[in-house]
Amino acid sequence: QCAERIPEAEAVLDLLEKCPENQKKGGFPVIVFEGLDATGKTTVTQAVKDTLNGILLRSPPACISQWRTVFDDEPTPIKRAFYAAGNYILASEIAKASTQAPVIIDRYWHSTAAYTIATETSGKDQDLPPAQDEVYQWPEDLLKPDLVLLLTVDPEERVRRLQHRGLEKTKEEAELEANSLFRQRVEESYRRMVNPACQEVDASPSKEEVLMTVLQVIKKHCAF
Questions:
Q1: Which pLDDT score, from 0 to 100, does residue 163 have?
Q2: Which positions are tagged coiled coil (predicted)?
Q3: How many CB atoms sit inside 10 A of residue 115's CB?
Q4: In what order do the strands lie in the sheet with 103-106?
């Protein structure tokens, strides 16, 4: 139905239809980095990719990311459908890449879920669906990573980093900054994710310290 009004929707659906169902991971580990903007994901993922001689992928994947601004201006259900479809298209890339090298991913399903849950809920983080709710479960038909790392920094430090970057804010980033309750709901949603759960890493120290901590967690959870 969207395709008549949004030509890009047809292209996304075409890519989605070409993806084989129930993608299987290759022999190399798949490691996802999650977190709010300005928690250091870009820096850390690049450093881990270089250290492990890995392949770096992002969500939404490169083949559809140029349409992100189009869908970000659409009503919430359409926007969420775009990001959800992006995860399944990304899974195809992960399946192929993980036969060649370790795969490092800047955001995946947990981001889509956490922002959706936080948007659909109002009030404080206590008002979120209960911790055991199925909304926090990984989808059965989506390729699962070996490890998910959640990078966190305190709110003041995150705002300082955003101001230092001086980049134009996304709508969601503006909401995060203006609405501390929304930010708390997003972070708490991340923490409630299961199968796999997020391993939390304090990304406040120096880049070198954060990288060292991250590599220790990876070594502990992934076989190399």
A1: 66
A2: none
A3: 23
A4: 55-58, 103-106, 30-34, 147-152, 198-202
pLDDT of residue 4: 73
CA angle 208, 91, 56 (to 5 degrees): 25
pLDDT, the chain, mean: 89
Domains of the chain: 7-221 (3.40.50.300)
Answer for the pair 44, 211: CB distance below 8 angstroms, yes or no: yes
CB-facing half-sphere around the CA of 66: CA atoms within 13 A: 4
- Rounded distance, CA 135 to CA 122, Å? 16
Place of tokens 């993608």: 23
Q: Copy the structure tokens of residue 217.
A: 């967690």
Q: What is the pTM of this model?
A: 0.89
Dump pLDDT digits (tens) for 51-86: 999 999 999 999 999 999 999 889 988 999 999 999
**Helical ranges in 53-167 per DSSP H:** 62-65, 68-72, 76-97, 109-120, 155-165
Residue closest to 54 by CA, chosen among 19, 83, 29, 81: 29
- Sites in the chain below the pLDDT cut of 50: none
Say what the pLDDT of residue 43 is.
92
Contacts (Cβ under 8 Å, ≥6 apart) of 215: 48, 51
Nearest to residue 70, comparing CAs of 11, 157, 150? Answer: 11
Q: Can you tell me the distance from the alpha carbon of 32 to that of 12, in angstroms, rounded to the nearest whole number?
A: 23
Q: What is the DSSP string of 205-216?
A: S-HHHHHHHHHH
